[in-house]
């Protein structure tokens, strides 16, 4: 009995405590490192960025969904079914072919809108998967509650909305803009941005000037608080 309880506690601790996922992101065609690639944990909403060598690290748990996105490239996602210790996952992103017949790019579309169309095209089947109506089809609805594949698809649908929100924020609150306004680069840049996430609602409503003022204000506050270079959950895990 004690042995069984110990095993259950061990499995529970593995699922609860975050582990470190690290790797390198490169161009699938040239092999060159991509920077700064946005790495998002769709379940915890934590984000990180690859450095100039394409290296990244982020905190993960069993069952988390990790998305890798870079403007002009097809997104990639990794689902973590079981996590122990430090994980290694190298990513090769493919450039988007805007001449494909899968979708039509209209004049005036922003890079974010074009990439959003590509993402919807890539994940169309999972996003369109319907929820069974418990009143019209109670047996189907009950089956969906227990089917692992179906539950995974529904979790992805929820995660996708968070992912899109984060990617929109990235278009307003980009590493390039922060570097331009603050001079931060590398780990300091990632530390500041991970420590000071921009709310989605603010990113949607703020003018370009207001975004710049927000960055400058929060940068000054960050310096006042000691300019913590190590602030991400993934780095905290590494430190332990």
Please describe the structure with a list of short key phrases separated by commas or semicolons:
Immunoglobulin-like, 240 residues, disordered N terminus, 48% helix, disordered C terminus, 8 strands
What is the C-alpha radius of gyration, as a whole number of Å? Answer: 20 Å
According to CATH, what is the topology of the domain at 2-96? Immunoglobulin-like
Estimate the global geometry from the Cα principal axes.
globular
Spell the H/E element sequence.
Answer: HEEEEEEEEHHHHHHHHH
How much of the sequence lies in strands comes to: 15-25%
SSE-based structural type:
alpha/beta
What distance separates the N and C termini? 32 Å
Largest sheet: 4 strands, mixed
The number of distinct β-strands equals: 8
Query: Considering the protein shown, what is the CATH homologous superfamily of the domain at 2-96?
Result: Carboxypeptidase-like, regulatory domain
Summarize the structure.
The protein has 240 residues and is an alpha/beta fold. Helices cover 48% and strands 15% of the residues. It has a domain at 2-96: Carboxypeptidase-like, regulatory domain (Immunoglobulin-like), CATH 2.60.40.1120.
């Amino acid at each position: 009995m004690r042995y069984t309880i110990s095993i259950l506690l061990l499995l529970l601790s593995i699922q609860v405590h975050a582990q470190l996922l690290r790797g390198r992101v490169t161009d699938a065609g040239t092999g060159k490192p991509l920077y700064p690639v946005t790495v998002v944990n769709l379940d915890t909403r934590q984000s990180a960025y690859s450095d100039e060598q394409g290296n990244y690290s982020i905190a993960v748990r069993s069952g988390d969904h990790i998305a890798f996105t870079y403007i002009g490239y097809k997104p990639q996602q990794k689902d973590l079914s079981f996590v122990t210790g430090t994980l290694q996952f190298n990513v090769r992103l493919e450039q988007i072919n805007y001449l494909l017949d899968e979708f039509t790019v209209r004049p005036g579309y922003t890079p974010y809108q074009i990439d959003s169309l590509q993402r919807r095209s890539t994940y169309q089947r999972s996003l369109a998967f319907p929820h069974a109506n418990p009143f019209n089809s109670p047996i189907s609805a009950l089956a969906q509650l227990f089917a692992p594949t179906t539950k995974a698809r529904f979790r992805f649908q929820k995660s996708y909305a968070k992912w899109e929100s984060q990617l929109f924020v990235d278009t307003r609150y980009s590493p390039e803009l922060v570097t331009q306004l603050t001079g931060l680069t590398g780990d300091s840049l990632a530390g500041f941005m991970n420590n000071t996430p921009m709310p989605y609602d603010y990113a949607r409503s703020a003018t370009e000037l207001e975004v710049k003022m927000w960055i400058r204000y929060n940068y000054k506050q960050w310096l006042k608080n000691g300019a913590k270079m190590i602030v991400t959950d993934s780095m905290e895990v590494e430190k332990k």
